[in-house]
Amino acid sequence: MDHSHREVDTYRDTWVRYLGYANEVGEAFRALVPVGLVWVSYGVSTAYVTADAADKGKKAAAAHGEKPGKVARIGVAVVDTFVWQALASVIIPGFTINRVCAGSLWLLGRTTKLPLPIRKWTTTAIGLSTIPIIITPIDRSVDFLLDCTLRKLYEAHDNTDTKKSS
User: Fold this and answer.
1) How far is Cα 13 from Cα 16, in angstroms, rounded to an integer?
2) CA distance 22 to 28
3) How many angstroms separate the Cα of 52 from the Cα of each of 35, 79, 149, 151?
4) Residue 165 predicted with pLDDT over 50
5) Is the dihedral angle over the CA atoms 120, 133, 144, 4 positive or is it negative?
6) Residue 162 has what pLDDT?
7) What is d(CA 55, CA 72) in angstroms, rounded to the nearest whole number?
8) 71 near 79, Cβ under 8 Å?
9) Where are the bilayer-spanning segments (predicted)?
10) CA 28, CA 121: separation in Å to the nearest integer?
11) Terminus-to-terminus CA distance in the chain, angstroms?
């Protein structure tokens, strides 16, 4: 029997996580809805990203207590979460779905005689079905990107703080 209890992260372990994918859904429907609704979907995703970053900053503050370096730890938690979520939940998947849909609409227009409404609905279906396929590769790629760039700066800062306090 496993007695370990991992705290549930509202922004990663519950239905709230799907708010981060709102812009991909908006992009998939771009051919069918007014562009303003697509921008609303980006607003929902951006609100999700911002709320997750604020939550991680709050948790870092609580975990760090009154130890030296608290502000830096909070900053790292907020920046890392915001950058990761912005790339993995909004920017890269939004661009990807946008291009998949634009490409499929163009290709359907060039290779079929389907009426435009059918091509638009087909494009939307292709976009929606692409979302689950792209999530894991994008998440892993963003982890790799941040591990090779931004997170190295955090490590350098931690090493500098350690040397100063010794």
Assistant:
1) 8
2) 10
3) 26, 11, 21, 18
4) no
5) positive
6) 45
7) 16
8) no
9) none
10) 9
11) 43
Interhelix angle 116-148/92-111, rounded to 10 degrees, is: 150
Residue 161 clears pLDDT 60, i.e. is over it = no
> ∠ at Cα 150 (146, 153), nearest 5°?
140
Instruction: Give the global pTM.
Output: 0.84
- For 4, 5, 162, the CA distances from 1, given in Å and listed in that order, are 9, 12, 40
| Whole-number Å distance between alpha carbons of 15 and 159 | 38
- Residue type present at position 54: A
> 136-153 pLDDT, tens per residue?
999 999 999 999 999 998
Asked if residues 50 and 82 have their Cβ atoms less than 8 Å apart, the reply is: yes
Decide if pLDDT at 82 tops 60. yes
